[in-house]
Design goal:
The protein contains nine helices and ten strands. By secondary structure, it is α/β, with parallel strands linked by helices. The radius of gyration is 18 Å and the shape is globular. Bound molecules: adenosine-5'-diphosphate and magnesium ion. Its EC number is 7.4.2.1.
Length: 238
């Protein structure tokens, strides 16, 4: 999926020859110290950040640099951020239907029907007519997941989706994500939630200083990491 991807911010080499394959239906957890390039990696995958070199493929198709083809492929990649990023002046329902109506040209009634089904699935159908600020953080993040799913993405990217949440709301979001994983969604998840990694992921990617330092199974990674760098990191978070 990613081949020799490189990215600089000025002199800073943020992504160094990143090779990463994510198979269909696979859940990959990306973990690592702050500043290691995890968010940049996520943003590069749907070209929110341009890359300097390498290739990103979604379902075998290289991601084009710009234009209509990019918009189409970008729709295949759903993204959920730490900070929810819902449109504040639109209701939850409008947040979820906007993309399908604008980008996928789904008729409004059909888009609303699908959106209600998705909101039901993430457990907040009764919040559909409210505005984001009227919801708890956990509800907003579930709305953001529903919004991403409404585009029928082939892969979902989550960048620390629970780290801005109060502890009691973490589980409700992780439960939705675990459900998605169980249904076979292809997912790349930046998180330090080990319970989720163990439950849902096939692969843990440990990233530091712009490099993939270690790729391992969750069980092995958390009990028997292979690299000193990963062991050092784990000793600080465990
Ligand atoms: P992580 O998500 O693992 O914490 P990031 O991808 O956010 O790491 O950041 C990787 C590095 O790139 C950091 O050193 C950060 O300061 C830098 N960086 C991120 N975004 C930008 C930007 N827009 N401009 C300049 N430097 C950036
Ligand atoms: Mg980050």
């Amino acid at each position: 999926m990613l081949e020799k991807v490189n990215k600089h911010f000025g002199d800073l080499h943020v992504l160094k020859d990143i090779d990463l394959t994510v198979d269909r239906g696979e859940v990959v957890v990306v973990i690592g110290p702050s500043g290691g390039g995890k968010s940049t990696l996520c943003r590069s995958i749907n070209r929110l950040e341009p890359i300097d070199g390498g290739t990103i493929l979604v379902d075998g198709t290289p991601l084009p640099a710009e234009g209509k083809a990019l918009a189409r492929l970008r729709a295949d990649v759903g993204m959920v951020f730490q900070s929810f990023n819902l449109f504040a002046h639109k209701t939850i329902l409008q947040n979820v239907t906007l993309g399908p109506i604008k980008v996928r040209k789904v008729p409004k009634a059909k888009a609303e029907e699908e959106a209600m089904a998705l909101l039901d699935r993430v457990g907040i159908a009764n919040q559909a007519s409210k505005y984001p600020a009227q919801l708890s953080g956990g509800q907003q993040q579930r709305a953001a997941i529903a919004r991403a799913l409404a585009m029928h993405p082939k892969v979902m990217l989550f960048d620390e989706p629970t780290s801005a949440l109060d502890p009691e709301m973490v589980k409700e979001v992780l439960d939705v994500m675990t459900g998605l994983a169980g249904e076979g969604m292809t997912m790349i998840v930046v998180t330090h939630e080990m319970g989720f990694a163990r439950r849902a992921a096939q692969k843990v990617v440990f990233m530091a200083d712009g490099q993939i330092v270690e790729v391992n199974t969750p069980d092995e990674f958390f009990t028997n990491a292979q690299t000193d760098r990963a062991k050092d990191f784990l000793s600080k978070i465990l």
